[in-house]
Amino acid sequence: MSKGKFALGAVIGAVAGIVAGVLSAPKSGKETRADIKDRAAELKEQAAAKAEKAKARGESVVEEVKEKVEHYKERSGLEKK
């Protein structure tokens, strides 16, 4: 199983556990909805932070690949002069 599928399954499982816990807690509907809304906001912020980190890492990898391509072009003599 790939790491991506495992991570997605872990996230879905965590969300399901949180929802089940919130729904089974002895609170009023209004309190439960507020808890769900707060937790959803937290998860949204976490997801945005992780997406930003992944984007930055992707940009870094692209830059590294470009540098390696240029290096190998120069070594091979394919670089235009």
Considering DSSP H and I runs of 4 or more, what fraction of the residues is helical? over 70%
Total helical elements:
2
Low-confidence stretches: none
What is the gyration radius calculated from CA atoms?
A: 23 Å
Mean pLDDT: 83
How many strands appear in the DSSP assignment? 0
Which secondary-structure class do the elements indicate?
Answer: mainly alpha
3D shape? elongated
Q: Sheet bearing the most strands, described?
A: none
Question: SSE order, as H and E?
Answer: HH
As a percent range, the share of strand residues is: under 5%
Report how far the terminal alpha carbons are from each other: 48 Å
Overview of the structural elements:
With 81 residues, the chain is mainly α. Helices cover 86% and strands 0% of the residues. The protein has helices at 3-24, 29-76. The mean pLDDT is 83.
Helix-strand layout with pairing:
Elements: H1 3-24, H2 29-76
Features:
81 residues; mainly alpha; 2 helices; 86% helix; elongated
Short characterization:
The chain is mostly helical and 81 residues long. It is built from two helices and no strands. The longest helix has 48 residues, at 29-76.
